[in-house]
Automatic annotation (TrEMBL), chain A:
<comment type="similarity">
    <text>Belongs to the peptidase T1B family.</text>
</comment>
<comment type="subunit">
    <text>The 26S proteasome consists of a 20S proteasome core and two 19S regulatory subunits. The 20S proteasome core is composed of 28 subunits that are arranged in four stacked rings, resulting in a barrel-shaped structure. The two end rings are each formed by seven alpha subunits, and the two central rings are each formed by seven beta subunits. The catalytic chamber with the active sites is on the inside of the barrel.</text>
</comment>
<keyword id="KW-0647">Proteasome</keyword>
<dbReference type="InterPro" id="IPR016050">
    <property type="entry name" value="Proteasome_bsu_CS"/>
</dbReference>
<dbReference type="GO" id="GO:0005634">
    <property type="term" value="C:nucleus"/>
</dbReference>
<comment type="function">
    <text>Non-catalytic component of the proteasome.</text>
</comment>
<dbReference type="GO" id="GO:0019774">
    <property type="term" value="C:proteasome core complex, beta-subunit complex"/>
</dbReference>
<protein>
    <recommendedName>
        <fullName>Proteasome subunit beta</fullName>
    </recommendedName>
</protein>
<dbReference type="InterPro" id="IPR029055">
    <property type="entry name" value="Ntn_hydrolases_N"/>
</dbReference>
TrEMBL record, chain B:
<dbReference type="InterPro" id="IPR035144">
    <property type="entry name" value="Proteasome_alpha1"/>
</dbReference>
<comment type="subunit">
    <text>The 20S proteasome core is composed of 28 subunits that are arranged in four stacked rings, resulting in a barrel-shaped structure. The two end rings are each formed by seven alpha subunits, and the two central rings are each formed by seven beta subunits.</text>
</comment>
<dbReference type="Pfam" id="PF10584">
    <property type="entry name" value="Proteasome_A_N"/>
</dbReference>
<feature type="region of interest" description="Disordered">
    <location>
        <begin position="242"/>
        <end position="268"/>
    </location>
</feature>
<keyword id="KW-0647">Proteasome</keyword>
<feature type="domain" description="Proteasome alpha-type subunits">
    <location>
        <begin position="6"/>
        <end position="28"/>
    </location>
</feature>
<keyword id="KW-0963">Cytoplasm</keyword>
<dbReference type="GO" id="GO:0005737">
    <property type="term" value="C:cytoplasm"/>
</dbReference>
<dbReference type="InterPro" id="IPR001353">
    <property type="entry name" value="Proteasome_sua/b"/>
</dbReference>
Length: 260, 268
């Protein structure tokens, strides 16, 4: 074994030996950086409405182009006042949930009447994501943080986003992934202040339908969640009705005769 | 307290289960000039009696702003107090950086207490010789804590520390039950009256006391921690003295007060 190693380090610089040399030099530690995402969730969309914030996404997680997992919950409640939705690498999302668990647990154990609101959690996540990016080891996610908290001037709604490079902002409506391109234009045109829950769900479903038709990594199984001063509710998954009866689908070669 | 064979080291217990060095550190607090703190549901006030080393020097600074929502008044070794104020400021800033929100006062008081406790359990350290009244505002309302050199801390409605603070405590004990509903002005007046008790005959003016307040107004806007300027303090003192001339004022009944009351009309 030792002879082999000796030969390789003396010999040519191929990829294998280089990484082995790096390993030896670093004292046996291989690179632990995130290089690519493996199991990914697609878009999440969210918007503020009259009583709080509504968030929705599909329940699919893809492994490259394979639709590997079809019942994945990508929106979770955080503490008493917030919801988090994540797209991107699902294992990183789970790790983030673990960090948030630790945070909310210590907050809960204080039992002093103070609790972490959505703004605090968003700020915390921004610090985490940005610091990881600076180490060239990002958590490969785009996260949406929404919530409502009672403040001195009444119920304060909050909706913000942070992504893998640490970019963060607050808005009345947010989307990740393909949602940025397909849902945001709809939300910009049709979002209004103080929508009712029913109106908000209709708007969200309109966006989800577009994403279902046009995003190949989305599936027809969605979860809608809301957060109000009463707490978080994540509704059971359901499907949307789709229409495929276009004449072009019936006779695809009509306009373009091909060999197949 | 008398010297004994168990008081050389902070890490030596006495047979009765006492740490004498820690108790001696608490004596240092009693040597400092008085500070009082009191709070309502929405506001907290700190007041300190200014003490100057000599007539030639300026008075020692005893009230420090720690963050927009909190501040401290200290009694004892002012140098130790300055260092602890810097620590508190840094804790508040670090919390704000990560969470973009103010550090709740109870958690601030805990961090200070834990820091003080460390010095009671290391043979190469000595306890901080300063007692701090920590006043602040968070989402659960206004709070007042007293942190002592032993590492203990308690929440108070009203409290006084430093030399002759017992007179102030007696004054506050009679009135604290109503403080939750006091207006900020009433709190300031009571704070000044409490400081007056500790001056023992000396006339209370804006130059021998410092008052600071933090709170939340009825409309929800915050009044950040701020020392009230001398001119306004003098106005409040003057209005208090004018009210004291009237015999219905309950504080005029107190024995300690009678001496100063008799002095006031003669001074004019």
């Amino acid at each position: 074994m030792e002879e082999q190693k000796w030969d390789q380090s003396m010999g040519g610089f191929n990829a294998a030996s280089r990484s082995q040399m790096a390993e030896a030099a670093a004292g046996g530690e291989e690179s632990q950086r995130t290089l690519y995402p493996y199991v990914t969730g697609t878009s999440v969309i969210a918007l503020k409405y009259k009583d709080g914030v509504i968030m929705a996404c599909d329940t699919g997680a893809s492994y490259g182009s394979t639709l590997r997992y079809k019942s994945v919950e990508r929106i979770k409640a955080v503490g008493k006042h917030s919801l988090i939705g994540g797209s991107g690498e699902f294992s990183d999302f789970q790790e983030i949930l673990r960090y948030l668990d630790e945070l909310t647990l210590s907050d809960h154990m204080w039992d002093d009447g103070n609790s972490l609101g959505p703004k605090e959690i968003h700020s915390y996540l921004t610090r985490v994501m940005y610091n990881r990016r600076n180490k060239f080891d990002p958590l490969w996610n785009a996260l949406i943080l929404g919530g409502v908290k009672m403040g001195p001037k009444g119920a304060e709604k909050y909706l913000g986003m942070v992504n893998m490079i640490g970019t963060h902002f607050e808005e009345n409506h947010i989307a990740t992934g393909f949602g940025n391109h397909l849902a945001i234009p709809i939300l910009r045109a049709e979002w209004r202040e103080d929508m009712t829950f029913e109106e908000a769900v209709k708007l969200v479903e309109k966006c989800l339908l577009v994403l279902l038709y046009r995003d190949r990594s989305s599936i027809n199984k969605f979860q809608v969640a809301k957060i109000t001063t009463e707490g978080a509710t994540i509704y059971p998954p359901y499907s949307l009705k789709t229409f495929w009866g276009f004449s072009h689908f019936e006779n695809p070669a009509q306009g373009a005769v091909g060999s197949w | 307290m008398f010297r004994n064979q168990y008081d050389t080291d902070v890490t030596t217990w006495s047979p009765q289960g006492r740490l004498f060095q820690v108790e001696y550190a608490m004596e240092a607090v009693k040597q400092g000039s008085a500070c009082v703190g009191l709070r309502s549901r929405t506001h907290a006030v700190l007041a300190a009696a200014n003490k100057a080393a000599s007539e030639l020097s300026s008075h020692q600074r005893k009230v420090f702003r720690v963050a927009e929502h909190a501040g401290v008044a200290l009694a004892g070794l002012t140098a130790d107090g300055r260092v602890l104020s810097r620590f508190l400021r840094s804790e508040c800033i670090n919390h704000s950086f990560v969470y973009e929100s103010p550090l709740p006062v109870s958690r601030l008081a805990l961090r200070l207490a834990d820091k003080a406790q460390v010095c009671t359990q290391r043979s190469w350290k000595r306890p901080y010789g300063v007692g701090l009244l920590v006043a602040g505002l968070d989402e659960t309302g206004a709070h007042l804590y007293y942190n002592c050199p032993s590492g203990n801390y308690f929440e108070y409605q009203a409290f006084a520390i430093g030399s002759r603070s017992q007179a102030a405590k007696t004054f506050l004990e009679r009135r604290f039950e109503k403080y939750n509903d006091y207006t900020p002005e009433q709190l300031i007046k009571d704070a000044l009256s409490a400081i007056k008790e500790t001056l023992q005959g000396e006339k209370l003016t804006s130059s021998n006391c410092t008052v600071a307040i933090v709170g939340r107004k009825d409309d929800g806007t915050m009044e950040p921690f701020e020392t009230i300027d001398a001119k306004r303090i003098q106005e409040i003192i003057d209005s208090m003295e004018a009210a004291e001339e009237a015999p219905t004022e309950p504080s005029a009944m107190q024995q300690e007060e009678e001496g100063t009351d008799a002095a006031a009309p003669m001074d004019i």
